[in-house]
Structure prediction request, 821 residues.
Amino acid sequence: MSQPNSSHTPTLVTRDGAVLPDGWQLLNDADEASGDGPYVLGFERALRELDGLNDRCGVRIQPADDVRLLEPFLDKIALVEVAFPGFRDGRGYSTARILREDLGFTGIVRAVGDVLRDQLHHMLRCGFDEFVVKDADPAEAVAAAAKRFSVAYQGAADDRLPAWQRRLNAEAAVS
Amino acid sequence: MYVYDDFDHAFVADRNREFADQVQRRLNGEITEDQFKPLRLMNGLYLQLHAYMLRVAVPYGVLSSRQMRRFAHIARTYDRDFGHFTTRQNIQFNWIKLADTPKILEELAEVEMHALQTSGNCIRNTTTDQFAGAAKDEVADPRPFAEIIRQWSSNHPEFTFLPRKFKIAITGAFKDRAAIRVHDIGLHLKPTGFDVHVGGGMGRTPYLAPLIKTGLQPENLLSYLEACLRVYNRYGRRDNIYKARIKILVSALGAEEYSRQVEEEWARLDTTKVDAPLAVVDHFKSFFPDPAFKGGFDAEALDRAKTADAAFARWVRNNTHAHKRDDHVSVTISLKPVGLPPGDASSAQMDVMADAAEAYGYGELRVSHEQNIILPHVAKGDLYALYRDLDGSNLSTANVGKITDMIACPGLDYCSLANARSIPLAQDISQRFEDAQLTDTIGDLQIKISGCINACGHHHVGHIGILGVDKQGIEFYQILLGGRADENAALGVITGKGLPAEAVPAAIERVVRLYLDLRTSETERFIDTVTRLGRETFAEALHEPA
Amino acid sequence: MKLLTANRLSDGVVLWYAKDRWVEDAALAAQIDDAEAETLQKTWAARETEVVAPYLIPLTADGQPVQREHVREFVRANGPTAGQTAFDTSRSFHRAEIFE
Prediction:
């Protein structure tokens, strides 16, 4: 369920705050690939076509898609777009973590759809590195999100140590 | 009890700063109500009938005197001088101003309290046995694990937008005083490890949680929970809010299949990143030592006091619970005086309870899911002095576990979700049974009242459950019989048609009188007679005048 | 005919619409004809920095909230019916209960 009042244009921004033009083209199932791409394929189409591709492409995953089905084709995928049709649908967070931590995917993981600044911190922690975000100042939104919480209580896809690990490290340092 | 370190203080400060920013952006129109609503819910702020309601977390129901005094201060300064203790061991303030909330949260943070995740589709307050660490029948203290779960679930990046709310309960005693079977995840700590029950709940479609895993080792608790939550996050229904709890998923898959999916997910987790090692478990255990129990109990002095003061004797009989030390007891302060809203306490009463805990209770209090306050450790030699302090503030009602010790949600007097009012009904019922001797004769009987199907009053697991239903605006109540929240958990069954409010107290009385006629002895409790004879035996009494 | 009601954003206080302004006393609420009420509700739903959750209460022929909403609107107009703040709202306006 999208938010009618989010009047800002969606802008592609990286985890480092770089605003990028989005050079990727989303191919719907019936579309022919015309031009040089690069292309983002829908999930079903990706499962059918990835095996036969030489170049690396993008795949868009909807919340109900099982990301693990992409496992055999990860080396053909440069970009995974994880869709959030409504910001309240949190399945994309699990998708991203599975991609990073279980499948070891090292390409770009991008959040698309109903993405606002208030979700960016959690998305960063779940392994996203690009965001198509609706905000007046996307670069500032990403920078603010990274700094938003100085403490993490749990391990996730990022490098942050959970508080219990930091406590252990602090104890070890003084002993 | 747990004491914040710099990490914990920093976390709450960061959250409060974030929320203060979100409030500002809402007040000046930078974000819409639709965008703001999930954010304010995650900080425990509801918009109710009369005003904003703030639900403050009391982590696993454990409270210090200092924290109770802060509640009194908030009630006085920002509210109408009282607060309401809930069935999830939290406290609610009903007349809060949105603009005041950042300041209130700051004042709570000073005493290591917050309102985080007391609402919204996230992991809520983990609840436990109100006698944890004190009860004679306790096998292992669940509180260190409750704190471990609390921290792990705080601001969890993957589980902030679940299909629906998620409630975890944990117990470490043989008797289940935490109602674990009607929670999304119910954990039972045993010497061999955790029994994990998943998929319990009340509401529109009540379920008792099936056992999903047994013998889970403490050092694997978090990774296993993470696997359970991940399966739910991925596969819980999001198309229908009435079908979105994990109980629906577990029921649809079947316990075996759900368990299999969790094991599969668990096997693929990097548990070294998730699981806190045993050294960490020990670290948390170190926060829950026994207090320095005072000795020198004069049993004769206590007996003399009881002989001299019958009301005191009755209070000892009804309101104390066996402690692991023979010279101590746990004391329940009943917040169910006849004729007042169940679970409410005035700011003055909160101060009295804080002082009493400091003087006689080693500075510690608990909130039970039955909406009472507990002093878990009280030396028997201090009981009479404690009783007199409580008695002066209408805190000495000797009805714990009895028919007038009702659970009631706030209902349509406060809550915008309600169909019917629960508080006036609770008051009418308790007035009918107010006679002390009658109450004691009836014995243990739990009435639980919910103003709507959301079941915040736990009506499904009351010996007598009462559910407010909407009959085109006229308040009607369905009566359920035979529910239990304990280790023999059972769901009550609707018995007969709904009754209008004025008919309910008399109907309850008919059922109670029939029980008194049919019980085999004074020691056969109401719930046991109902179980023995069947609900149908009592159905007629509910609906026909004798 | 309908009543328009909402909560004030900053403090959550219940408000009632009375001919071009919001009031805190339900006794002063204006009865609005259905068409105008719909328009007003939409207008105020957009004025999010002032009020939140504006909604319409349908009235019976004699100006009372319809049966379905009766108890709820009684409680909002007069205060909770039980406990420490019983009828606080109506008392604070120095008037008897309304929406009997």
Q: What stands out?
A: Confidence is low (pLDDT under 50) at residues 1-5 of chain A. Residues 8 and 136 of chain A are 6 Å apart (CA to CA).
